[in-house]
Amino acid sequence: MDKPPLRDQPDLERFAPVRSWVFDLDNTLYPRHTNLFAQVDVRIRDYVQKLLSLGQAEAQLLQRDYYRRYGTTLRGLMVEHGIAPDDFLEYVHDIDHSPVEADPVLANAIARLPGKRYILTNGSRVHAEKVMARLGLGSGFEDIFDIARADLVPKPHPDTYARFLAENGVVPGEAAMFEDLARNLEVPKALGMATVLIVPRGTEPILAEAWETEGSEGAHIDYLTDDLGGFLTRIVDGLAARTTSP
């Protein structure tokens, strides 16, 4: 699968007014090749298989279908089968987080960002906290807005963004959103946020469903990078140089 060309030189004029830095979690704060979400994927399939007494292949097809149509498999199971979410979330996020390695470049860049930092994820808070601890991000985030806080309505539903913005007092025109799924940036862009799509690094293959990569060339994507830590470093270094220059 061909990759879209990177657009990873940030325009400092675009980021100068940003005071709210909003990050997706999985395959965004850590690189896709870490393959952490593959563990979650397997556990979701197993959950669907046991719940509905399906074969493995059938369960995987249904899991993918719900993910594509509803934003998360959980939402599909809730709508189609009326399941309660707590057991699902606990089961699918009970994984080994050790593949996520500390990222001092990313941690340093995020710590230097002017304003407040947020996580907006379709996963659980517990999962987010474990990932952040592995990355070495510390406690410098204003809020972790997880799927429970979104009333179990996942991105890219507009209500999820509206709820996040309202609860945190985030002004879209003073915010930037970082995501690995292009469709999850359509609403932020329409609201006036700067949008950055994170893609696999270098020559790594894009191990994703075809629909997950759709829209990466769309007008709702301002920037596209395969190195979040480097991209943020260019922003904070550039902004710092502007404030110190005569």
UniProtKB/TrEMBL annotation:
Gene3D superfamilies, alphabetized: 1.10.150.450, HAD superfamily/HAD-like
Keyword Hydrolase attributed: yes
Pfam families linked to this entry: Hydrolase (PF00702)
InterPro entries: HAD-like_sf, HAD-SF_hydro_IA, HAD_sf, Pyr-5-nucltdase
GO molecular function: hydrolase activity
Keywords: Hydrolase
Annotated PANTHER family: HALOACID DEHALOGENASE-LIKE HYDROLASE (PTHR12725:SF117)
Name of the protein in question: Putative hydrolase of the HAD superfamily
